[in-house]
């Protein structure tokens, strides 16, 4: 089969590798029908994730068709059309029993495209298949389902839920890339009073307002002005960091109100300064997290019922064998206007 492999910082190769095989009784082999690229893949290619070694097939988000299952898989059979979650656990360890699959102690968590071969290939082996796979209703198109593999549950669990968004909250989201836009969609499920987005790119500010932000501003000065006009100078109840660089994290800490929450979602490749000398007295909560995908069944029901619309997030479409072009477009959003890209195995 063909797959995209990481070959060291700045190097990726689309080439022929052996087909995946069932390696354990809880595995499934899935034909990849649609796949996407994540900002985390770009971090890997920059060398920010040292656990990813040369030769690793990249990718952790896909929709596909089950080809084969291990002897212990009870929930799926060949031919099932499925969503592959980016994170899945054993279901038995302490963390999994608390629905914290991202911290699985038995070889689960984020493995695809990280510790084992991932989804940017014609086929993929999926461990813990009964927990990792979700059968897709016929009414849900591949392209829309694809967004539930990672960015929607990540934005909801690590941003909105950890950020303690409730009806009437004021919410600021720093970064209007795919995760920030997904945070808008999932925050709106909880009826905040105002959502303000900060991003320097005009195309992403426009996308933020199209997807439900009340206000989108370009920089820190405008964000501080929004504190005055939107929150009466108090600061935001919830501030979601959706970029992953020191400057944006520090801006989030400036925008949150006393007693509010900063929910960090961005993947950081460098240290950020935490101004405890100022924050210690303000009852501010700072959360971090890796998605557990516990919300995926709920989000999938909302998508199937028309209560959640992901159609505005995919801006570019490619064949799977055009994956280098897809990376070039996704990696240059300021020039291409890309939000999410979708690749189809036709």
UniProtKB/TrEMBL annotation:
Names of required cofactors: Zn(2+)
Keywords on record: Metal-binding, Oxidoreductase, Zinc
PROSITE patterns tied to this protein: ADH_ZINC (PS00059)
Tagged with keyword Oxidoreductase: yes
A family per Pfam: ADH_N
Residue ranges of every copy of the Alcohol dehydrogenase-like C-terminal domain listed in the record: 178-304
Span of domain Alcohol dehydrogenase-like N-terminal: 24-136
GO molecular function: oxidoreductase activity; zinc ion binding
PANTHER family for the chain: NADP-DEPENDENT ISOPROPANOL DEHYDROGENASE (PTHR42813:SF4), ZINC-TYPE ALCOHOL DEHYDROGENASE-LIKE (PTHR42813)
Family membership: Belongs to the zinc-containing alcohol dehydrogenase family.
Name of this protein: Alcohol dehydrogenase catalytic domain-containing protein
Species per Swiss-Prot/TrEMBL record: Nocardioides agri
């Amino acid at each position: 089969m063909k797959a995209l492999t990481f070959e060291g910082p700045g190097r990726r190769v689309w080439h022929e590798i052996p087909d995946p095989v069932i390696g354990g009784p809880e595995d499934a082999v899935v034909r990849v029908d649609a796949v996407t690229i994540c900002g985390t893949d770009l971090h890997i290619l920059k060398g920010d994730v040292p656990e990813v070694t040369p030769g690793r097939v990249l990718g952790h988000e896909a929709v596909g068709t089950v080809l084969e299952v291990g002897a212990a898989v009870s929930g799926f059979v060949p031919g099932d059309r499925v969503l592959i979650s980016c994170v899945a656990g054993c279901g038995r360890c302490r963390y999994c029993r608390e629905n914290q699959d991202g911290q699985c102690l038995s070889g689960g968590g984020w493995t695809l495209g990280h510790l084992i071969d991932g989804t940017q290939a014609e086929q993929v082996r999926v461990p813990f298949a009964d927990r990792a796979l979700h059968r897709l209703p016929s009414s849900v198109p591949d392209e829309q389902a694809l967004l539930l593999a990672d960015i929607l549950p990540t934005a909801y669990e690590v941003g909105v839920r950890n950020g303690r968004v409730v009806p009437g909250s004021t919410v600021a989201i720093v970064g209007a890339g795919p995760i920030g836009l997904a945070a808008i969609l999932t925050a709106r499920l909880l009826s905040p009073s105002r959502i303000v987005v900060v991003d320097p790119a005009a195309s992403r500010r426009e996308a933020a307002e199209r997807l439900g932000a009340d206000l989108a501003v370009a920089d820190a000065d405008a964000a501080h002005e929004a504190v005055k006009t939107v929150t009466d100078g108090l600061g935001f109840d919830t501030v979601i960091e959706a970029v992953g660089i020191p400057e944006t994290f520090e801006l989030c800490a400036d925008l949150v109100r006393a007693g509010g929450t900063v929910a960090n979602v961005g993947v950081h490749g460098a240290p950020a300064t935490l101004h405890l000398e100022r924050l210690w007295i303000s009852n501010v909560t700072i959360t971090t997290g890796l998605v557990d995908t516990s919300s995926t069944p709920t989000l999938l029901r909302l998508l199937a019922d028309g209560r959640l619309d992901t159609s505005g997030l995919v801006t570019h479409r490619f064949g799977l064998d055009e994956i280098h072009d897809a990376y070039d477009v996704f990696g240059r959003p300021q020039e291409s206007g890309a939000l999410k890209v979708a690749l189809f195995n036709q």
